Amino acid sequence: MNTPHAPAPTSPPPTAPANTRGRVITASMVGTTIEFFDFYAYATAASLVFPALFFPTQTPANQLLSSFAVFGVAFVARPLGSLIFGHYGDRVGRKATLVASLLVMGIATFLIGVLPTASTPGFSFIAPAILVLLRFCQGIGLGGEWSGAALLATENAPPGKRALYGTFPQLGAPVGFILSNLLFVLLSVQLTPEQFMAWGWRVPFLLSSVLVVVGLWVRLKLMESPAFQKVLDEQRVASVPIARVFRTAWKPLVLATLAMVATYVLFYLMTAFLMVVGTTAADEASARAAAETAGKDFNAATFVPGLGYERTDFLTMLIIGVVFFGIFTVVSGPLADRLGRKRLLLAVTAGIGVFGLVLDPLMHAGTAGVMAALILGFTLMGMTFGPMAAFLPEMFKADVRYTGSAVSYNMASVIGAAPAPYAMIWLWQQQGGSLLLVGSYLAVAAVVTLGALVIGGETKDVDYLA
């Protein structure tokens, strides 16, 4: 006699395989490395070659200001990029949006590498305009890149390790800087100044295409993050994410924006601005001799003394400083997981304010003082930048996290980064080479960020799947 069998238990529906730790780390770090490599290539060229190549009819001082004004165009574009990519990141998913942002940034950078200069017949006026357009496209791409990479890392992190995982996309900044500037140093050593000005500066922009292919290959293998998958499963996708952000999370949006201001000001002080100061002739005689060698007119009335380092020497010093940036970016992750984001950032931001006040005496204390300033500044940069990939996204719910973190990160770039190189150059020129007002500018930015951190709350223990 056959006995009836009990019904077999229903198996749970299969779930998509999770991203492995190695894949998460590689995809988030490789992508931002590529983005920052592209961005630094432009920043270095804006300091060294673009003033003469794209604004040849202006005075040397105005050439530099015009070059950095174009540099700032990307920061105006970044909020627009954050709206575009944030919208699709919160509606379609993190993976597809990350691939698109990388393509936009990579194509724009490659085209800068083949752009005719203003001395090319027929391009005297159109070349600067095209440069502005491509710089705008770079900003669009970067506007969506950072937040997606941060979410990729932190939404796949084990419990209690979000800040640690968040440091991996942040490492793209120092790694991209080192790769870009090592390439510029190599080109400067191997090429004559005439060769570098004629075509050597194009090489980093053209080589970025290789890095983009690598980044795309890694990112196309990703699975969607668990947090966004939960949003899809619960049908919580916002039809217009930015509208939901302003309706439900306007206060975190404002506080997250202001919390990044000091980080941005410090970042561009340590990179784009100090590159100019470090490589500008220290006295009028040296500047006159350099102008004669280059076949240019010298105007003593507009000359502002810098530190007088050779370009390759100062780039090497910057690279040494950036090593500390990378080390302390990694160090900041476990500290933020243990101490909390707010407590760590309050201490580091106070340190940034003090650094601004001692910048001038350090930078005028000889090579030892300059190196000490670079190491201290980049150490503070790592400690403030590292926790941001966890801190900013944690301020927003999963259904608007891409948009909220992207908009706040990039609005901070408009406030903190876009005017910083231009304003610092102007302050430095007005003070005849002194950095007192430049340091005070950084200290004021630190006060703004301290206020936002004091008002805001701790985010370490938020429910990241909510």
TrEMBL record:
Entry's Gene Ontology molecular function annotations: symporter activity
TM ranges: 39-58, 64-85, 97-116, 163-187, 199-220, 253-277, 314-332, 344-363, 369-392, 404-428, 434-455
Start and end residues of each stretch annotated as Disordered: 1-20
Organism this protein belongs to: Brachybacterium paraconglomeratum
Keywords assigned: Cell membrane, Membrane, Symport, Transmembrane, Transmembrane helix, Transport
Pfam families: MFS_1 (PF07690)
Protein known as: Putative proline/betaine transporter
GO cellular component: plasma membrane
SUPFAM superfamilies, A to Z: MFS general substrate transporter
